[in-house]
Design goal:
574 residues, alpha+beta, Protocatechuate 3,4-Dioxygenase, subunit A, 25 helices, 9 strands, 65% helix, elongated
Length: 574
Amino acid sequence: MNRIKRFSLLSLAVVLAAVFCLSSLALAAGDRLTVSGTFKSPTGKGVKEVEVEVLVNGRHVKPLGKEEEIVTGKQGSFSREFELPAGALPAARVEVKAFKPNWEHLKPIAVQVAEAGADAQGNRLFQAAGNFPLKRAVTPAFWIATIILLGVYLIISFEWMHRTLAALLGAALILFISYTAGVLDKGYFILSFEDSMAAIDLNVIFLLLGMMIFVGVLKKTGVFQFLAYKAYAWARGNVFILSFVLQFLTAVLSAFLDNVTTMLLVLPVTIEIAVTLKVHPLNFLIPQVFASNVGGTATLIGDPPNILIGSYTGLTFGAFVVNLALVCLVMLVISCFYYLWWHKKDFQAAEVKDVERTIAYLREEYRITNRKLMIQGLILLGFTILLFAFHGFLHMQVSVAALIGSLLLLAVSRVDIVEMLEHEVEWPSLMFFVGLFMVIAGAEETGLIQQIANAVLYFSQGKLWLAIILILWVSAIASAFIDNIPFTATMLPIVLFMSESFGLPKDNVLWWSLALGACLGGNGTMIGASANVVTVGLAEKAGYHIGFVEYMRRCWWPMMITVTISMAYLLLFY
């Protein structure tokens, strides 16, 4: 029995000794190293989805945890822990290298290691951190994305196919190439499906959807025909006065609403007036949408680029009005008279024979047909406009305001939503935006827009007056052919860097150069601004088609005139 006890005690001692030895080994098992950092573009913006590799003394080491891959997050940052042999640190050489398609490969960069104490198990803890610069690389994906973007614009320009089909086909090609050639060779990878979905600005899509529903419901009340009668009666049949007033009122509305919403509201009225006068509606609509973009430039909420600039810099509604309203008013008056001269023959040919008789006929013909529905629609439209005005204070996207107002109207009025969606929503225009957002995202992801922005930074060469001119004109020309929303977003950090380089205050002239260029440049073509696309789409739905080249012929030179006026204003007063 004593033997058994002695054996048991001996066994227990052996086990305890083994446990002690193992725990001692565990305590000395290794040093813990945490490597973290942020990958940034030349403009200081974090680069997401960068594949990171950590090297110790030239050899790849695997991070702790189940996931062996190290990939940066949305802000371009990463942080992972590694286990190394005891005593390896801090003498070991720790390096970081990285890879991302369409970016130059980051060769191993050494990071400094610092001791950070020990954990409860006795492991020594070390940290290594740094910021790592990445530069764009010109890859096959860059050229493919550029060719697809230019191809889409050429197809639209020469009307070889419908613009919606061209945009969606371009988007589909980008994704197809990315997941075929791009899988075999990452140099051909343009855009991931997830990034293409994220590129679709649902704020724009839902804003348009909500306001189209508003217009569709209000059309049932006869209010637009009634307003057409009132406008005609007020102008007493003078087509020149009528056109001037319509342009001016559209611009004022666009300063306090967004320009897309304004065009959705005034378009039915304009078409009714034009039909009455036997004038082609586009002779009124194109000057109006031009005026809408000019008016929207004057305020923080009038045009999407201004919203982006205000959000990025913290500039107030008042700052935009003080710095931009006056020059926008001058440009509005000049553009109004330009279009009166341009359409002089068309307006002179208008059928204005018996004004009093026509007014009497219109008064009888264009009555309010559903007063209750009109009151409901106008109240909820007013509520929506109020939400637009306070969207900055509420931190509410304008699309939320448009959707809640329009859907409440459908719920209160009992108007059939299926009918609205089938007959009043301009789906081809919405899908055009979807495709265009994706095509432009491909160009942005592969570095095309960044190349344009970098060129502005390079050629300014430390001269403020040259920086003003470059930002203004590059923004204007680019925004005529590339959607001004992603372009403005790309330019924001560059303009901020240039502002700091020149030692300028927050409220400085470079921001107004960007705002004027991006907003006014969108007037140059039918796809340069959202308001243009919606106006052309709805006019086409009503039976009035206009081609890309014809639209550009009517709008390019007045756009150039307004940008030139902006340049003179910025150089003289700043």
